[in-house]
Design brief:
- The complex is a heterodimer.
- Chain A is α/β, with parallel strands linked by helices.
- Chain A has one domain: LmbE-like (Rossmann fold), CATH 3.40.50.10320.
- Chain A is 38% helix and 16% strand.
- Chain A contains eight helices and seven strands, in the order βαβαβαβαβαβαααβ.
- Chain A has a seven-stranded mixed sheet, with helices on both faces.
- In chain A, α3 packs across α4.
- Chain B is α+β, with helices and mostly antiparallel strands.
- Chain B has one domain: Distorted Sandwich (Protein Yojf, Chain: A).
- Classes of the chains: A alpha/beta, B alpha+beta.
- Chains A and B meet through loops of A and α1, β1, β2, β8 and β9 of B.
- Chain A: It comes from Cohnella nanjingensis.
- Chain A: This is Bacillithiol biosynthesis deacetylase BshB2.
- Chain A: InterPro entries: BshB2, GlcNAc_PI_deacetylase-related, LmbE-like_dom_sf.
């Protein structure tokens, strides 16, 4: 199978905190990454003080940020699927799953990254993960790529256990921090990065590990 | 002009000038308009603080027409649009896009700059 990874996430910036280091690592190891981003995050709320964006200009700003983040990580194949922020859970399953299936047939990935449905807090995250799981689940078992899921709901480990894939990305903090910083419209909020400068030791501690759950498909 | 403001990474969202917004409301009355109306606590409200109740609602590119529209006198501003058979109401508006000539872009931002409410009117879809 080709060394090709498919990433399916709903919003620009969903890749930054939990996945960008892992993707940079895979790319350095010779993998190619295709990132399908379902929306432009056009309903995002962070607009700065004073506001530097409004509902009309935000999609173009976030698209540029996403392209900059991909460049930082080394992703050269970004697909913008054109769905609308906050609506993924209401989309026609045939349309949504069909777009994802088209990508899988085209790319034939050996590995897919998405959100763990039910454990990813934002309704778009859960709906995106569910669409990927449905689509991959329809493939014959011996053709299914592995699906590594991001998850961050509270108390999720009581249900789905400990993450089984732990990626040490301490060697890839430069692209990871560049990915996070690329999304400057979203990540200036105090609750995400804090108000103080991190020392490099703090960054290594906080951002040096990325955790995933392999989705358990039945047969 | 929009390109130029985008290149600077921003827009010209300014604190609402009540008289200016009122003039713009008057210019847009008695015609079919696309509306974007939204209010949100943010999808992570309950995740960040479990005592919070997450709520959000938006309607985008519905067509309305109003015969009388006005903005209240003091910040944070309220806007009411009287339609033939009903009303559009929005409270908590703080900013407007000063450079817009055709559309009216209003938003309400909290102390962290996060958008809480928005009301947009234009002759073309958003």
């Amino acid at each position: 199978m080709e060394r090709h990874i498919l990433v399916v996430l709903p919003h620009p910036d969903d890749e930054a905190f939990g996945l960008s280091g892992t993707l940079a690592k895979y790319i350095q190891n010779g993998y190619r990454v295709t990132y399908a981003c379902l929306t432009l995050g056009e309903m995002g709320r962070n607009m700065g003080i004073p506001p530097f964006a409004n509902r009309v200009t935000l999609p173009a700003i976030r698209r540029k940020e996403l392209e900059e983040s991909c460049q930082a990580i080394g992703i050269d194949d970004l697909r913008l699927l054109g769905f609308h922020d906050k609506t993924i859970e209401f989309e026609d399953h045939r349309l949504l799953d069909g777009r994802i299936d088209d990508l899988i047939q085209e790319i034939r990935p050996s590995l897919i990254f998405t959100f763990y449905p039910g454990y990813s807090v934002h309704p778009d995250h859960d709906a995106c993960g569910a669409a990927v799981i449905r689509t991959v689940g329809r493939l014959p078992a011996d053709e299914r790529p592995a699906v590594h899921c991001l998850a961050f709901a509270k108390n999720l480990e009581e249900d789905i256990g400990q993450p089984d894939v732990i990626q040490d990305v301490r060697e890839f903090l430069q692209p990871k921090m560049a990915s996070i910083r690329a999304h400057r419209s979203q990540f200036q909020a105090a609750e995400l990065l804090g108000d103080h400068e991190y020392t490099s030791e703090e960054i290594r501690e906080r951002f040096g590990t990325e955790r995933f759950w392999t989705y358990p498909f039945g047969s | 002009m929009r390109e130029r403001t985008l290149d600077k990474g921003g827009t010209s969202m300014r604190l609402i000038d009540q008289a200016d917004v009122q003039q713009r409301l008057d210019r847009l009355k008695d015609q079919d308009l696309y509306i974007h109306l939204e209010m949100t606590t943010g999808a992570y409200a309950a995740f960040i603080d479990s005592t919070k109740h997450p709520a959000a609602t938006f309607i985008t590119n519905a067509v309305i027409r109003y015969s009388h529209g006005s903005v209240s006198d003091q910040a944070p501003y309220r806007v009411g649009l009287k339609m033939v058979q009903g009303w559009v109401y929005s409270e908590g508006l703080t900013h407007y896009e000063e450079q817009e000539t055709e559309r009216l872009i209003l938003a309400g931002h909290d102390g962290q700059g996060k958008l809480i409410v928005s009301l947009q009117l234009g002759r073309e879809p958003f």
